[in-house]
Amino acid sequence: MVQKRVDSHVHFLVSKSQAMSDWDAIGNILAIAKIAGLDALCVTEHIEAKAYESLMLGIFRDNNLNGTMHSDGVVEVDGVSLLPAAELELQNGTNVGVHTNFDTLISLTRESGAYTLESLHRALSQRERPFKLVAHHIFWPGKTCDDLQELGRYVNAIEVPAKDLANAEKYMALAKDLELATTGGSDAHTFIQVGACHTTFDMSATSSCISTSWIECKKTSHIYNEFSPRLVAMAKIHRKTLIA
Ligand code: FE2
User: How far is the CA of 45 from the centre of ligand 1 (A)?
Assistant: First the structure.
């Protein structure tokens, strides 16, 4: 089995209000991802972000990063694969990572709170394309979910978030309770935090496609190290200087 490492929760925009993508800054994120030994990044940009559509079109249609465009929709830049995705805020405030093909993502309603978990799952099922839903930082204040059993019926994995590693055991216990796998996501908005917590999974025995393997893999896991909290803290300071 070939194991892959993917940061399954990455933003390429510093904030939701950023008007346009900064391709140089995105290049920096990719450079650090490569040094960190990551095989792939899931571009889980906020779907309601002002520049969501132009960012995704820029990467996956117009190839602004000058990568290799694969037939499965993956764009590979200097050995790091970019997988199309989105982060959605549901009606109840819960955040989920949506991992599916580019056309499906672009077809979704892009307003915050447009979906419940059930209606999102229905909308994705109707597209009849493979998809994966990941519960993002589910114990983060304001982003929690009152019905964790319902959550477990619709999502495929529970994220252990880099920004809440002090509670990592809690996320792992929930995943175990719901009989789901964990994923690791950095929730990076800049190059500093990328990979601070990330996901490991095995490539499919029947497909050489990294996006298919990632979406279909049920036995993902998370990984981080003792430097991860420091990266998160540094990134928070850095990001403040960019938003101010
Ligand atoms: Fe996020």
Answer: 7
Q: How far is the CA of 211 from the centre of ligand 1 (A)?
A: 20
C-alpha 185/C-alpha 159 separation (Å) is 6
Measured in Å, residue 206 CA sits from the centre of ligand 1 at 31
What confidence tens digit (pLDDT) does each residue in 47-62 have? 999 999 999 999 999 9
User: Alpha-carbon distance 128 to 38, whole Å?
Assistant: 30
Statement: residue 244 has pLDDT above 80: no
Ligand 1 mean position, distance from CA 209 (Å): 25
Residue at token pair 């990979």 = 195
Give residue-wise pLDDT tens across range 144-174.
988 999 999 999 999 999 999 999 999 999 9
Ligand 1 center to 161 CA (angstroms): 9
CA 230 to centroid of ligand 1, rounded, Å: 18
What is the average pLDDT across 216-232?
97
Rg over alpha carbons for the chain, rounded to the nearest Å, is 16
* Structural domain 2-243, CATH architecture: Alpha-Beta Barrel (3.20)
Q: How far is the CA of 95 from the centre of ligand 1 (A)?
A: 8
Alpha-carbon gap, residue 209 to 40, rounded angstroms: 12
From the CA of 11, how far away is ligand 1's center (Å)?
Answer: 7
Q: Where are the domains of the chain?
A: 2-243
CB 198 within 8 A of CB 7: yes
